[in-house]
Specification:
Layout lengths: L7 H17 L23 E6 L3 E7 L9 E5 L2 E8 L19 E8 L10 E5 L2 E7 L15
Antiparallel strand pairs: 1-2, 2-7, 3-4, 4-5, 6-7
């Protein structure tokens, strides 16, 4: 006899409904394809990032190829980092009819990233190199891990 968790079917139904609504609410272009730059869920996921840390800093690597670095804006408010900018379309004023395939979206974007702890906003550094925006966010002194010595009596 096979044991099945009592809520297995409900869990499967829940997953299926999440999947259905997730695909339903993603923004679409007029031709039915997904677009990363239309308002909605996908627009909030550009640029793709890695967020990691060490003892002294948080690091954000944002994948942003083809963006003019002068149009990138980085700001921080409280514990929220905001990346915004604009990815320009193909230069030359080509008409949409000229494209046989168009997979690279263009337009304004904004991405907010909630940081795990407070950072020292006066010491933040941002560098754009080879299509990657690297942001170094020094931890605030009060958020750095502190070792506490245990006194033996």
């Amino acid at each position: 006899m096979t044991y099945r968790h009592p809520f297995y079917e409900l869990d499967q139904l829940h997953n299926e409904i999440d999947r259905m609504f997730g695909s339903f609410f993603r923004p679409m272009e007029k031709n039915g394809r997904r677009s990363a730059f239309l308002p909605g869920v996908s627009a909030r996921a550009y640029p793709k990032i890695n967020l990691y840390d060490d003892v002294n800093n948080y690091y954000v690597e944002a994948l942003a190829p083809g963006i003019d670095p002068t149009k990138l804006e980085v700001s921080i408010t409280g514990g929220v980092l905001t990346l915004s900018g604009e990815k320009t379309a193909v230069p030359g004023g080509l008409k949409p009819e000229a494209f046989h395939r168009s997979e690279r979206a263009a337009g304004r974007f904004i991405r907010t990233i909630e940081l795990p702890n407070l950072v020292d906003a006066n010491k933040i550094k941002a560098e754009y190199k080879n299509g990657i925006l690297l942001i170094t966010l020094p931890r605030a002194e009060e958020s750095k891990p502190k070792a506490i010595a245990v006194k033996v009596s």
